[in-house]
Structures are given as C-alpha cells and as structure tokens.
Amino acid sequence: MSAKAHKNKTDPVEPTRERILSAAESVFAQFGYDGATVRRISQAAGVPVALVNYHFGSKLGLYRAIFEKRTPTVIDKRVAGLQMARAEPDLDRRVDLVVRALIWPMFALRGDDPSADFGRIVTREMSDPQAEARGVFKEMFDPVADMLIAAIGECFPDWTKAEVHWAYHTMLGAMTIVLTDNGRIGRLSDGEVSSDRWEEAAVHVCSILSAGLKYRDRSQTRG
Amino acid sequence: MSAKAHKNKTDPVEPTRERILSAAESVFAQFGYDGATVRRISQAAGVPVALVNYHFGSKLGLYRAIFEKRTPTVIDKRVAGLQMARAEPDLDRRVDLVVRALIWPMFALRGDDPSADFGRIVTREMSDPQAEARGVFKEMFDPVADMLIAAIGECFPDWTKAEVHWAYHTMLGAMTIVLTDNGRIGRLSDGEVSSDRWEEAAVHVCSILSAGLKYRDRSQTRG
DNA sequence: AATAATCTTGAACGGTTGTTCAATCCCCAC
DNA sequence: GTGGGGATTGAACAACCGTTCAAGATTATT
C-alpha cells in the first residue's frame, strides 16, 4: 500500500537493510556501543525489533556491518594518498602529503552528512578497551596504520623507531579530536570555529603537524 | 574479625566509601559509563550493591564523585604551570611551557597507577555526546581550557582566533590519544614504545607540538 | 548502660536488555 | 492460481539493569 510496496530487486525504494544500517550508524555514534539499544535503532529505522537480528544476526553483527560498509572508502583514499606521497621526491613536500593522506580521508566523511556519524564511531572505538574484544577496529585499521608509519619513516630516514611512532600517534590524536568533537570546539571559541567546517579544520591541523614533524627538537628524543 | 574491624575515625584501614570509589574508577575506565554496571562496581569493591547508592545516591552521583576527587589535582597543576609560563619573557621558551602545562598534569596521572584509569575516563567523556547531559566534564574542565587558550594567544599575538583555537585542540588531541591508548601503540611498534612510559611519550609529543606551533605555515590560515 | 545515629545487608522492585519464535505477509517462478 | 521462499511482524523469553526497602549490625552520644 505504501511506496515501498512496488519495490523491485534492482532498486528498491528504501531497502530495509539499508535503513537499519544508517539508523544504527546514527544511534551508535550518539550513544556508543553499550548505550545504543537494538530497540532504539529499530525505532529510528521505523521497523520492528526482530528485523535487526533477522538481517544482521546480532547487535555485534550490525556493528561490524557498519564498518564493513564504511572502511573501504577511507582505506582506499589513504592508500591512494600514500602512493601520491611516494611519488613526490622533495621530502618536505612529501611530509605534507603523508599528513594529508592520514587526515583527509577521515575528515571527508563529514562531507556527506550521514557518514559523519561513522567518524565518531571510529574515535569511540579507539578509546574503548572493549574494542579489542569486538576486534573490528584492529583488523580493519591496523594494516593501513602500518603503511602510514612506514611512510613517515621514509620521510625521515635518520629518525628512531620511537620518534616515528610517536609522530604517527601525535598526528592521529590531533585528527581524532576533530572527529570526536560534539560542540565543545565551537563553545570554547564562542562559535568562531567549528569542527563542522572540516576543510578549515584540516588546513589548520595539517599546518601544525607538518611543521611539527619537520622542525621538532630532537635533542631529547634522538636516543 | 577482619582487619577493618578495628578501624577508627582518623585513619580507617580501608574506608568503604573509598573502596567503592576506586573500584568504580577502574570499572568506568574499562567499560564506559553505560557499559559499567553498579553491580560490577560493587563486586569489584567487595561490598553489596546497595552500599553504592547509599554512599553516592546514584550511579551518576558516583561518577561525579570520581571527578570531584581527581580534577582539582590536574587543574591546580595546570594553573601553576601557566603561571610559570607567564613569568617567562622569551616567547619561544614560553610556548614550551604552555604545552607542558597542558600535557604533563594529565600524563602525570599515570604516575600513581590507580588514577591512570581517570585519564581514560576523561578521554571517554570527551568523545561521548551524552557527556553534555551529565555536565561533569564541561563544568570542571572548560574554565582551565579558556586559560590555556588565552595563554597560547599571548604567545602569538598576531594569530587569528581560529589559529589559536585550532592550535589548542590539536594539542589536546595529541594528548588525548596517549591517555586513551590501550595497547595499540605498543602493538603497532612491536613493543618498542608504550604509553605506559608516559614521560617518554610526553617528551616526544611536546617536541612535535612546540615546533608545530612555532614554525607552522600560516599562509592558508592567516585569514 | 541506654539511646540515637550511622552503616551494612540480602532480597525485592519495576523496567529494559538482546534475542528467539511461530505466525503472517508479500512477491516471483511455475 | 498455486506453491514456496524470503521478508516481516508482534509477542514472549530469560537475564540483567539501577534503585529501594525493611531489618540488622555497628558506632557515637548521653
């Protein structure tokens, strides 16, 4: 009787599975894995509770499905960014490209609004010890993290392993706080700046990180 | 019959309230606000469930009590660090001191082990939209954040407001990821570096951030 | 020693959690 | 049209949630 009544196989009007998936993305981002309830997700999607378990098996299955949907985009962009960086012979400029390869693919999630939630889910997962038990984050993001760390090492051949790794995590942390922000940045600046304008944020953060790597004082870390 | 039987008012062997408080700190850090259950906390403290609500009124009351116990130490150290920075006439050196004033008081929590958990609770609170509803973080940390942002502005009088604020949040993010880490940093570096050795981490992160602020390329952010 | 105040206890409260199940619906191939 | 298989539904499950309560144990005050 409704619009969805005459759906077909190739392009259903609003496939239920997809509706649940994007509702879950929003609810998980807002309430976290434990705070989010299957009932609230199903309600947001406008479907009965049982459908969630029918389509995704379990709450964890639904959670994993979100990552399986979103991560490839981010990973691919990062790999592409790193290839571009490797092609740059000038080491100074290459640093800028490596920083960009880390930051931009994640910030770009804020571009299309529904997937802005995924950024928050990822940062929540990073700060959750229980994430290890879920296993999702590790298996999806560790490989590309290794690539990024290697790329930093190639930019600074004389750095110690500790210097390279701490540089990566410093960058990662700076990126994280923009993704994770929920209004505090705007509040503290009286609305002057906002994490919603992600391109502006990226320019600021990248400029600081690039200079930080290039001009850091290594006298205490050279080892 | 146990040791706690002959407790007195001045120094009880292990005051129940305090036992609950530190058990809660550990459980909240491990499972987050929603994931932590009052029953698990009481079990970790070795007391019946009802005692939690008797001493703290509610789960939220217990949560707030943790912040009321720990924050003053951090805030006081930061304020002291900022006073020291203001006394430094050389602007380059003053930057280093401001960065230290932000980073060290939080990292120092890792010094005495039980309160290492508090660092994770704080970073969890930062990435949780529901934190606003609890109100704890905002009311306790925003004032000193304003002071830190002002101190950065004084180091770089010609910077725009956006440059100052993004600088602060970049620093904050870098700090956050060390506090929030639960083994990933060690895993990615094959155990070479660890967030447990917080002084080493602080030196690396501070050196990058200091250089980042001093030597950033402002051509795209000058506005 | 007797009374009052505080702390501790185990059991219970109503409500919510993730998940399951049998019954129903809809669409497509025959 | 007539089966049949996937999609959907509402109700039910046991387990657990935060909180409350009346009763008992302990400590403090008179």
UniProtKB/TrEMBL annotation, chains A, B:
Matches recorded under Gene3D superfamilies: Tetracycline Repressor, domain 2
GO MF terms, alphabetically ordered: DNA-binding transcription factor activity; transcription cis-regulatory region binding
Keyword Transcription attributed: yes
DNA-binding region: 37-56
InterPro entries membership: Homeodomain-like_sf, HTH-type_TetR-like_transc_reg, HTH_TetR, PsrA_TetR_C, Tet_transcr_reg_TetR-rel_C_sf
The keyword rRNA-binding is assigned to this record: no
Span of domain HTH tetR-type: 14-74
Superkingdom of origin organism: Bacteria
Assigned keywords, A-Z: DNA-binding, Transcription, Transcription regulation
UniProt-recorded name of the protein: DUF1956 domain-containing protein
